[in-house]
Amino acid sequence: MIELFDRDKKEFNRKSSKGNQLKWEKDGIWYKADYTGYEGLVEYVVSHFLMKSSLKDSEFVLYNQEQIKYNSQIFNGVSSKDFLNKGEQLITLERLYQNTYGIGLNNIIYATPDHEERLNFIASKIQDITGIKDFGVYMAKLLTIDAFFLNEDRHTHNIAVIMRDNGEYRLSPFFDQGAGLLADITMDYPITENVYELMDKVQSKTICQDFDEQLKLAEKLYGTTISFSFNKKDVDEILNNIYGYDKVIIDRVRDVIFEQMRRYKYLFV
């Protein structure tokens, strides 16, 4: 258990559509507390499943489970190493576009009727601004992760690049998966409801409201960009390491992952 204080607390303008989790930074380690459900569990398991994918370790943030004591309360949550180097800052696509063109990127996207054009627009404009090559491939990887793990909170305020102090840019590792796997049991996905009916209700937010459509468009433009190599035994091993959560939550996460393995079996090698 780690005890954290107000001096460690961090505030951000970059908000989730459901508000902000408590976040802290201490000695180069970031901490996040659960907010609407079991976000910490999701961050942990998703990052450990990504270890069993075609992604390089540098392409995603690895999260570890934590119990956090703050203001005499105990929270479940996660920790991760700071992935920014000295002189670097994280800048969301929304703020980057606003700073460059004086208008919000999200407004432009949703004023464009064709969904494929939306994705093309994001990829091309961010590549033009930053000089980062193959930003479309990066977006395709992100949309694959979000579709598989049902991350409902991926919008232009929640996709970012890293800006160096010399004005150059680099890709950010994939992070912030906590809104996936039906984690919000407080508002939208009560633990007592049918898991498969809830899965059908989850909507994406990046270029449209349908995860499958987003992924198909990404694969049409950029091909299949991620493959997975875990099996059901691996799922059980990862979930058996979870602590601090009720069995009913762990069982639901297992059910969701198994169903997604069935739906997206073509992503497995």
Describe what you observe in this structure:
- The protein has helices at 39-50, 93-101, 105-110, 115-130, 135-149, 195-201, 211-222, 232-240, 247-263; strands at residues 2-3, 23-26, 29-33, 64-70, 73-81, 89-92, 160-163, 169-171.
- The longest helix has 17 residues, at 247-263.
- The strands form two sheets. The chain has a five-stranded mixed beta sheet with strand order 1-4-5-3-2, with helices on one face. The protein has a three-stranded antiparallel beta sheet with strand order 6-7-8.
- The protein is 38% helix and 14% strand.
- It folds into two domains: 2-81, Phosphorylase Kinase, domain 1 (2-Layer Sandwich), CATH 3.30.200; 89-267, Orthogonal Bundle (Phosphatidylinositol 3-kinase Catalytic Subunit, Chain A, Domain 5), CATH 1.10.1070.
- Strand 2 and strand 3 (29-33) form a beta hairpin.
- By secondary structure, it is an alpha+beta fold.
- The chain is globular, with a radius of gyration of 18 Å.
- The mean pLDDT is 96.
- The chain has nine helices and eight strands.
- The CATH topology of the largest domain: Phosphatidylinositol 3-kinase Catalytic Subunit, Chain A, Domain 5
Mean pLDDT: 96
Number of strands: 8
| Tally of discrete structural domains | 2
Structural class: alpha+beta
Q: Would you identify the CATH architecture of the largest domain?
A: Orthogonal Bundle
Low-confidence stretches: none
The shape is globular
Q: Which sequence of strands runs across the widest sheet?
A: 1-4-5-3-2
Radius of gyration: 18 Å
How much of the sequence lies in strands comes to 5-15%
